[in-house]
Amino acid sequence: MEEDFIKIKVLLNRNNVKYKIQEHLPVHTSEDAARIRNVDIKSGAKSMIVKADNNFYNFVVSAAKKLDWKKINLLLKTKKSRLASPEEVLKVMNCEIGSVPPFGNIHNLKVYCDPSLLENEFIDFNAGLLTASIRMKSKDWVKIVVPEVVDFGK
User: Where residue 110 sits, what CATH number does that domain have?
Assistant: First the structure.
């Protein structure tokens, strides 16, 4: 879990990205995270692992939105997709639900981003830990992660 936090910091430093780390009490929901970070919930990067047809994907949306499963199923060309279980998230991302960083690419996952997240100059996210958040410019995140930007939020 700490491993991904370190990997993300190394990746950001290697790419000369400015970012801030905030250590805080453990947070489990987007609402709690926004409150403890003292930021608008819209800037939160809600990062979730979705399973479809035995494959895993990283979906990232503004924390003020939810996933639209009809849009996701159309995008993934499947009839049924679902959130990965806590055990699957631990296996695939090496962290627990609530701390999934929007960096599925470091685990060779395809990353999809809803445009709602990119409406913010800055994004805030848990970076593999429930007790540490990173704040960075959304444009820098896009340059590093290179997500497919597609509408799947509601």
Answer: 3.90.960.10
